[in-house]
């Protein structure tokens, strides 16, 4: 059996620390690579797109805003038409803003009515099946 000296213990501890250092360095490199990939602009855009795609509230707000803009533009087009009169165009824009404000306050009711209308248009009428009686 060999005698253990303090230099042997010191060398063993140095070896352990070098292994630990190598392991932690590899972990740090992997972490840095993951962070680098996550912070690339293309990955940030993709991640944000997928998060927004899954967010139901965003979809509802987007739909509501789209409806508001569409109704306002239709109102403006009906009122102004192809007129080149500046006063009529200005009044058309004011009317458009007023309609958008009214529609945005009643957004939920309008969305429900629009979805009901769309469903009634595109949903085929199903004829109830007659019950057959055994003879």
Please, could you describe this protein's structure?
The chain contains five helices and no strands. The chain is mainly alpha-helical and 135 residues long. It folds into two domains: 46 residues; 67 residues, no CATH class. The chain is rod-shaped. It starts with 5 loop residues before the first helix and ends in a 13-residue tail after the last helix.
Task: Briefly summarize what is shown.
The chain has 5 helices and no strands. The protein has 135 residues and is mainly α. The chain has 2 domains: 9-54; 56-122, no CATH class.
Topology diagram in text:
Layout: H1 6-38, H2 41-54, H3 56-80, H4 86-105, H5 107-122
Spell out the key features of this protein.
135 residues, mainly alpha, 2 domains, 5 helices, 0% strand, rod-shaped
Into which percentage range does the β-strand content fall?
under 5%
The structural class is: mainly alpha
Gross morphology:
rod-shaped
The whole-angstrom Rg is 34 Å
Our count of helices gives 5
Largest sheet: none
Q: Could you say how many structural domains there are in total?
A: 2
Task: Give the tally of β-strands.
Answer: 0
Question: What distance separates the N and C termini?
Answer: 103 Å
The portion of residues assigned to helices is over 70%
